[in-house]
Amino acid sequence: MEEKRKAMDQIDQDLVSLLAQRIALGKEIVEQKVKDNLPAHDPGREKGIMKRMVALGKEQGLSEPLIKEVYKRIFEETRGKLD
Known about the structure:
With 83 residues, the protein is mostly helical. The protein has a single domain, classed as Chorismate Mutase Domain, subunit A, CATH 1.20.59. The protein is built from 3 helices and no strands. α1 (2-35) packs across α3 (64-79) and α2 runs antiparallel to α3. The model has no long low-confidence stretch (mean pLDDT 94).
């Protein structure tokens, strides 16, 4: 059991690191959009990402509500107070 817990701890660290990278890149894109006088929020792109990630999640045995909630929060965090 201890070995499995260590593996889960590593996965948790990796998840947080990847999440931080994902949000940082998203914020850079939002900042560039603002500089270029483009809308920071692109609902069509978010919808496409959500659709792809839900499908990928289902392939991996994850529930649609989980994936949708995770990506909803990622999008909100990325946009911050720009909306």
